[in-house]
Amino acid sequence: MTTISSPTTLETAQSFLREQAARIQIDPLTNSVFALAQTLFRDLEVGNAKLSDLSKLADEVHLDLIEERADRFRAQHAGGKAKTAWASLTEDLETLAAQGFEAFKARIEQATGGIVFTGHPTFALSQDLRTALADHVVSATKTSRNMLMRQIRADSRPWNQAISLKGEHDEVQGAIAHAANAQLAYANVLISVARKAFPDDWRSLKIFVPTLACWVGYDLDGRADIHWSQSLTFRLTEKAVQLGRYAQQLESISGSQKIGPLAKLTQRLKTASDDTARHAALFAADLTDPNNLVPAANALTEHTTRTVLDASEIIDVLDGVIPTAEDSLAAELMAIRAQVEALQLGTARIHLRVNAAQVRTVINRDLGLQTEDRELGRVALAELAQKARKSKPVQVNFADLFLEQSTARRQFMMCAQILKHIDSGSVIRFLIAESENPATVMGALYLARQYGVDDKLDISPLFETPEALETGGRFIERLLEEPEFLAYVKQRGYLSIQLGFSDAGRFIGQVAADMAIERIHNLIARALAAKDADVDLLIFNTHGESMGRGAWPGTFEQRFDHLLTPWTRGGARARGLQLRHEVSFQGGDGFLHFANPALAETTMAAWCSHTLSDPADRTKDPFYTRTDLVWDFYRSLRAWQERLFVNADYGRLLGAFSSGLTVKAGSRPKRRAAGPVGPRSLRAISHNATLQQLSMPVNVAAGIGSSLQREMERLVDLIDDSPRMKGLILLATRARLLTSLPALRAYARVYDPGVWVAHSKLAEPDKANAYRAVYYALRNNETSVSMNQIANYISVDLGKFDRLLAQLQNSPSLEERHEGRLDLHVLHAVRQALIMKAFSIVGGLPRLSERHDASSRDLVQMIAELRISEAVELLREIFPHSRDQDTPLRALTETGNDTKGQASYGYDRIHKDIIGPLDDIDRILHGISLAVAHAYGAFG
After folding, report:
1. 428 φ, ψ to 5°?
2. Are 74 and 137 in contact, with CB atoms under 8 Å apart?
3. What is the pLDDT of the chain when averaged over all its residues?
4. What is the H or E stretch that residue 921 is in?
5. % residues pLDDT > 90 (the chain)
6. Which is nearest to 613 in space by CA: 100, 110, 117, 203?
7. What is the spatial distance between Cα 141 and Cα 70, in angstroms, rounded to a whole number?
């Protein structure tokens, strides 16, 4: 009898998939992915393949996908070469300098925005694997490739389970340190160009470098596990580190310590750094105990001549030395000065974030005002404006902060204490998530006035919900009509707003969200320019690293233009409005851009190139002239995505076994603890991650085909003629390449009770009993039906999209799409085979004793929900491993049974045949989830 080898290498698995896919012409119901999954499962069952074979196959695909990701990352980062990136920017600066000193000065002194680091839960890859990936990007060698494989093979489950806020804060500080060095590198490049071009004037420049900001440890939206004392401990630690860095930078400059003022400043910064570190240690104690709070608070609030509270104390010294210092010393001091101006006394500026509901609670409860009337809270808005105008600051201390129960009030009090006792010159951003009502922002202004922080607080509404995406423009118009708010904006010098690409894309689809956000950008810019208030507009576009969360999968130039379009920038310039643009780098995936000095510098160079550049002329782009067709397309696409979002089958798809496909990737929970249920309760990252794991990024790829079917020819012409529309469709096309209906239908087959009945008919009696046990556990499960329903629904739409793509210029062929998905299909098939194997193992368990409060069917259900690690722990508890009697029990003096072979008590066979294999399956599945994310460029 001929033995057919199992397709457990990448080459044989791909060949198998191609052969099966060729059968579609004969049998349209052929599913190549499930065919491979079943083959691998049967081979496992009969011993033709081992779990270790499937583990090696998954690792092989993982290495392929992570290397492809590294290649894309390298191309984005100037080949991983900082010199290349700075050389390109130097040319741009030299071109600018050729326009004359005044033009150069105006451009490089203008505040243009910056970079924000957030703690979003995208830490799926272990820190060691991310480090190996970043190193491979910068220098791809045999050694770096071997290190990648070593980290791929490592069991990273313990690392993921140990993720904490403290760990996230440590990681972001590492990324910020690299960003700060890149910030200095930019300053040095700029000053070098200025010295050559303007030998008599360069010292007079007060250059602007991109700001760095962070909300890790300060973001309270959707979480209640961050105590105010922890935020203050983080801030004190950051200050201690940054003061030490400033001192080190000054000390390292040749000849600086021979200049009296610099030597004194260096020593003072060292002393202040040490003092601040001691304050941080005091605040790290349990401050829910007043006995700990009192000494910590007294130490911090006892200001002495050693205390440094304002960055101006540093800048004043530097300004006194720079005019007469030797050229090279002056140049280095100018770079440090620019950084001090940007960072103040912390490693980065801070963003505090609360939810609009937390502010509304204060307004409704403490002030008796309702903000949810049909007039967008007009009555409340007017009353709050009057209260803000009449408000007089109250003095607070740490006792007030200790006793306060309201989250919103606590955050304002914390702002007051930071400004009084830690960093009095630093601007603090106060972000209000899910803003839908202008009265909420006015309420925040009232509270800022009440606590005396309005002059240093940038109150910023975050527009991300469907309601906000529709009314955001009118929201700001209404606020600007209030003289009190306009006066506040003039006081600050700019209006701050935030746009959330992630949640917007979750609710209405990413392409529609991109269009809606661009519209809000322009409506707000128009409203602010109309006030002729001589202020800037600060736009913080917060987004992730995947297409589903707003990141363009191409060059940095394309990415930044996607977030803030040339049309928007050009329109603001035409209205005489200066824009300040901020972008986010979120969590572990975002921090990859700053994982080492080379990547940080190439990222910073690309960002500076964007902020210094002139926007391309888009006045003739038909996207902005054929508005009837464009906005009909938007409304149709948005409506399709909104119908999908509330589809009951879609909800079951995201809430059943699929949540178990994702891994713990952050300290924040996947779902909101309170509020709506269903897909809306799932956070944007978890939502996107789940869709990725199912090979269904439908919030990007779907809905296009069903929009404007009767206008297909006009839509094709628009896409071919419009750079903006082409970019949006290209985004959807990239997502389409990574969308696999066969993979989704294959998961439905794994959960189809009929499949297990069929397997039971062909199996040996013991296996047949196990398969029937799985059938009984799944027979009332709606997962399979819902997956097939959604697959059918999306199939119709994607078929239309494919026909649209076929009419476009340079669109990928059907063959290219199939070949491009082979690696992913192998991973999905391996995962499905492993899930089936886990079902088979647990289905064959013996009957459990009632004393364990768990049945065999409960364990099958745990496997169905992919709670395999829980099942393993439960089985270990029920069936303890044997224990050698050479333990403290050995000290018993009473004679026992010393019969050879019974010196151990336990269930070794069950551990070997059931518990051990289940744990191996869980480990391999964990690695597959990480591997799948590489194809999408990010987790979530």
Report:
1. -115, 130
2. yes
3. 93
4. helix 916-935
5. 83
6. 110
7. 12
Q: Please, which residues have CB within 8 angstroms of residue 916's CB and are 6 or more apart in sequence?
A: none
Encode pLDDT of 205-220 as tens digits: 999 999 999 999 998 8
Q: Is 414 helix (H, G, I), strand (E, B) or coil?
A: helix
Phi, psi angle pair for 196, to nearest 5°: -70, -40
Structure letter (DSSP) for residue 882? P
Three-class secondary structure of residue 705 per DSSP: coil
**pLDDT tens column, 854-892:** 888 889 999 999 999 999 999 998 888 876 545 676 777
- With b for 16 or more beta-carbon neighbours within 10 A and e for fewer, the 403-433 pattern comes to ebebbbbbbbbbbbbbbbbbbbbbbbbbbbb
The segment with the largest mean pLDDT, out of 412-421, 670-679, 890-899, is 412-421
CA 663, 669, 672, 677: dihedral to nearest 10 degrees? 30
**Residue type for 828, please?**
H
CB atoms inside a 10 Å sphere around CB 815: 8
Q: Which residues contact residue 77 at a Cβ distance below 8 angstroms, ignoring those fewer than 6 apart? A: 85, 137, 593, 598, 599, 602, 603, 606
Residue 791, pLDDT score: 97
- DSSP state string for 860-880: HHHHHTT-HHHHHHHHHHHSP
Q: What is the 3-state secondary structure (H, E, C) of 841-858?
A: HHHCCCCCCHHHCCCHHH
Please write the tens of the pLDDT for every residue from 519-535: 999 999 999 999 999 99
Nearest residue to 121 via CA among 647, 639, 686: 686
Residues in the chain, how many?
A: 940
| 432 and 444 Cβ atoms separated by less than 8 Å | yes
Whether 299 and 278 have beta carbons less than 8 Å apart is answered as yes
The string of DSSP letters for 271-293 reads HHHHHHHHHHHHHTS-TTSHHHH
pLDDT in tens, 56-77: 999 999 999 999 999 999 999 9
| Statement: the pTM of the whole predicted model exceeds 0.70 | yes
Tens-place pLDDT, residues 544-561 = 999 999 999 999 999 999
The kind and range of the H/E element at 483 are helix 483-492
Q: Are 736 and 817 in contact (CB under 8 A)?
A: yes
3-state secondary structure of 745: helix
Of all residues in the chain, what percent carry a pLDDT higher than 70? Answer: 95
Q: How far apart are CA 880 and CA 895, in angstroms?
A: 24
Cα separation, 554 vs 564, in Å, equals 15
Other C-beta atoms lying within 10 Å of the C-beta of residue 446: 25
Nearest CA among 236, 306, 283 for reference residue 398:
283
Give the count of beta carbons closer than 10 Å to the beta carbon of residue 618: 19
Q: How many CB atoms lie within 10 A of CB 256?
A: 21
Mean pLDDT of 507-511: 95
- Contacts of the segment 158-161: beta carbons below 8 A, 24+ positions apart: 159/126, 159/127, 159/128, 160/123, 160/124, 160/126, 160/663, 160/664, 160/665, 160/926, 161/664
Largest CA distance in the chain: 99
C-beta separation of 213 from 351 below 8 A: yes
DSSP helix/strand/coil, 371: coil
